[in-house]
């Protein structure tokens, strides 16, 4: 739509409170609320940013709904944003609890990192740094040999699995350790999570020193990194103040803004105990656009309000977060939100909203602010990557890989990392044209992603960086697709063999210990894992000669192919290797060896 079209449409709208939508075909581009629909929509005839100008030009119509009050409009707007996920609105991401470390309720407990512990499990946390938690759990398993396998894999074994050979499990499943000794190891591991750091730090330090004395410097370096994670583990914010006399439910919120990225940290307290911590990502540019439009029409803090501030971010967050959640008794904020309408709405619902100045509540706000400013790693690998590549901070990275078997079962993966951590809800995958051409496959995969983004068909925000699994050829194919579609997103590649970073201006070898390289490796490896897993699923759907072997059903066939990779490898496997696969007994193993 052009400016005249916006003015003409605005003239048809009522001067009442309500919600409006900018639409393009079947897609909703933007949802907004207004005290006066006509006046608000008319303001889009003169957009204040290039981002909103692009949205208006892409729209082909404006739809609206009238409400009785502005509060109703506020809630309707928030619910529509949640449901429709418009591309140009502020959208909450990472809306989930941080992980816990759980010991299962079994005679032989397993240890795991989880967001949803099983009934009866003993759980510790939550923790804010996922990478550190995983590193610490690996250290626990290496020192104490605790099992991490599922019950299905644990039961009925007659010999230890690979974890035992790697030294990270003491194999209680086959009696390599007595139940009494295993219980002692579990108790020691639990003491660490209860605050006794020395039970894990001391043995790790001894192993590190022994490795260094034996000139095993790579192992010593790995142990050093684990030791550092262990020693800093209990300083992550668990010292939050406790007050058993406080019987309220309280949310504590603080926001931080960095460039076009914004984070809101939420601490949740029940009966004086801190029981949950979450962190949410928002698009600060979209917050700024919304605040500028609010100022233009006399709402949302005034025309002179600074749009790109934590106060504006808190205002955008509060309405969406509480629109479909149970209200707490109180909300403590690091500062007043830019939109007083949101505060008025919460107070009318019986929520106490304030900015504390001292005491326990102020300490909780300080902790929330610390979490909001935290970027997720000790070396800020995301910031370092942006500086190394000469681009803006790439908070959102998408990684791509292709997997196939000589041109059959061709699939592509698209994984997503936000602020250095995997965002599994935003993973995507696609079946590709059957052909044995890695470059053409990558070109098709990137073109698919670009075309969906440009058409507004992908409900995810545009990434800040694309990472291609491969070398110069794969990157060239990806850049061809970007040029053909006109999607303007930076792209680099990471080659596996020598870990070379391939950019449009040349190939670089980064230091092995560079945090920005480690970030690229995590994204690349996850894209590869996700592609291979999907390829195996697609491949397993194809009928093979294994289906003709008596005793081999679809599930056993899948297990055989996942274990050995191909029918040829199944044919060459030993009898013992075959019987190690769940569902393959002695008779079936003999039949397989005879038939294949």
Describe this structure in words.
One of its GO terms (molecular function) is DNA binding. Interacts with UvrB in an incision complex. InterPro entries: GIY-YIG_endonuc, GIY-YIG_endonuc_sf, GIY-YIG_UvrC_Cho, Hlx-hairpin-Hlx_DNA-bd_motif, RuvA_2-like, UVR_dom, UVR_dom_sf, UvrABC_protein_C. It is found in: Cytoplasm. This is UvrABC system protein C. By secondary structure, this protein is of the alpha+beta class. It folds into five domains: 82 residues, GIY-YIG endonuclease (3-Layer(aba) Sandwich), CATH 3.40.1440; 128 residues, no CATH class; 110 residues, Nucleotidyltransferase, domain 5 (2-Layer Sandwich), CATH 3.30.420; 159 residues, UvrC, RNAse H endonuclease domain (Nucleotidyltransferase, domain 5), CATH 3.30.420.340; 51 residues, 5' to 3' exonuclease, C-terminal subdomain (DNA polymerase, domain 1), CATH 1.10.150. Helices cover 43% and strands 19% of the residues. It is built from 22 helices and 19 strands. Strands 12, 13, 14, 15, 16, 17, 18 and 19 form an eight-stranded mixed sheet that branches. A five-stranded mixed sheet has the order 9-8-7-10-11, sandwiched between helices. A three-stranded antiparallel sheet has the order 2-1-3. Helix 5 packs across helix 10 and helix 15 crosses helix 18. The longest helix has 26 residues. It is globular. The N and C termini lie far apart (66 Å). About 4% of the residues have low confidence.
